[in-house]
Amino acid sequence: MPSDLSPIDKAKFVAAKQATQYVQDGMKVGLGTGSTAAWLVKCLGEMVEKDGLKIKGVPTSTRTAELARDVGIEVISLDEAKWLDLTIDGADEFDGNLNLIKGGGGALLQEKIVATASDQMIVIADAAKNVETLGNFPLPIEVIPFGWQTTKTLVEETLIGMDVLGRKVSLRMNGEAPYYTDEGNHILDLHLNRIGNARQLSLILNQIPGVVENGLFIDICDIVIIGFGDGRVEVRDINEGSVEEGRIDFLETDNLFADLND
Ligand SMILES: O=C(CO)[C@H](O)[C@H](O)COP(=O)(O)O
């Protein structure tokens, strides 16, 4: 077993590896963004190269598009694909109803569009992302740069009437400058600590002029695959209401793991 990887990275890897079992020849697959999704893309690239897996990938960011091409996955746009069989992505938090906070990596807009245009969305995550109530992770919202400070004020005023614990709103930065998304927008991070009614908050935030989308994914995710640092995986399926457990043996995957870690 590679010793230089943290238990969290191993957990992300086993969740991603388990998710590849849902990918079949001929599928159009949405490819998420972030460190866990990057493991998935690398695993799928390995399957394309070594097993001749034939898939078309729709990436959710320029970062993922580059990685997917690098590992040999055929990349198409969502407009070319029109509809997807499956999207696999990471998350910043998920709750017992498989509702999510996403957008820690700034790609929430494309991620939500792509996941919504899929028959099935699978989230891959380490166990630390599992929460009872969403909101400890700051909720990202994507806003257009025009008048963003006014939009921020409107968001702050809106939060006064909401069932949340914190109300601090900060502009995401990239060093000294504001962060820009792939669509040329900014991100406001909402430090809410606890979101009492995520469905209501999501609907209300999206009504504010200047807000393009928020990082709450409500009723979008079907399955969460949770990875643990010792190789265990747990699969939660919202439709089946089931929980399955398994294990990925690091000894069996050691070579792949080492290759992918290059
Ligand atoms: O939503 C996302 C990017 O916008 C990511 O999926 C989320 O931030 C989780 O990232 P990681 O897998 O690196 O923990």
Automatic annotation (TrEMBL):
Uppermost EC category: isomerase
Residue positions binding substrate: 33-36, 89-92, 102-105, 129
Source organism, top-level taxon: Bacteria
Record-annotated active site: 111
Pathway field: Carbohydrate degradation; pentose phosphate pathway; D-ribose 5-phosphate from D-ribulose 5-phosphate (non-oxidative stage): step 1/1
One Pfam match: Rib_5-P_isom_A
EC number: 5.3.1.6
Keyword entries, A-Z: Isomerase
Record's keyword annotation contains Kinase: no
Reaction equation(s) it catalyzes: aldehydo-D-ribose 5-phosphate = D-ribulose 5-phosphate
GO molecular function, one term: ribose-5-phosphate isomerase activity
NCBIfam families: PRK00702.1, rpiA
Primary role: Catalyzes the reversible conversion of ribose-5-phosphate to ribulose 5-phosphate.
Subunit structure: Homodimer.
PANTHER family the record matches: RIBOSE-5-PHOSPHATE ISOMERASE
Family, as annotated: Belongs to the ribose 5-phosphate isomerase family.
Protein name: Ribose-5-phosphate isomerase A
The organism of origin for this protein: Octadecabacter dasysiphoniae
